[in-house]
Design goal:
Elements lengths: L11 E3 L5 E9 L8 E13 L9 E7 L1 E6 L2 E6 L3 E4 L5 E5 L5 E8 L6
Antiparallel strand pairs: 1-2, 2-3, 3-9, 4-7, 4-9, 5-6, 5-8
């Protein structure tokens, strides 16, 4: 069993043309012998965004804190703390900070794909 604060997990920062102000952390993954899923926590700084992308696997997202936007089916939808999002495999998506504070979300993916 593992019990930890996400803030104690190693952080990877992403700053590219397609991803700005993104910090990702693997909180439960291969290193923990998780056999089915990987849980990650992402923090988007004010003005930050993830790349617009799609992939074959589904994933689940839970908004922990802040206000953001999610791009789905060609439209932006506002999301906030407490929102749950299901992204089916093959669906284009992107997340963006929509407020003046950090936007933090949990993302669960299947094992066998890159953890970050």
């Amino acid at each position: 069993m593992k019990i930890t604060s996400y803030q104690d997990c190693p952080a990877t920062r992403f700053e590219t043309e397609t991803a700005k102000g993104v910090t990702g952390r693997v909180v439960i993954g291969k290193a923990d012998q998780a056999e089915n899923f990987c849980m990650r926590v992402f923090t988007l700084a004010p003005g930050g965004f993830t790349p617009r992308h799609q992939h074959a696997w589904e994933h689940e997202i839970f908004i922990h804190s802040g206000i953001g936007k999610v791009y789905v089916k060609g439209e932006w939808q506002q999301v906030a703390s407490g929102t749950a999002i299901f992204v089916p495999g093959g669906e284009e998506h992107q997340l963006m900070n929509g407020g003046g504070e950090d936007f933090v979300f949990i993302c669960v993916i299947p094992t066998g794909v890159a953890e970050l």
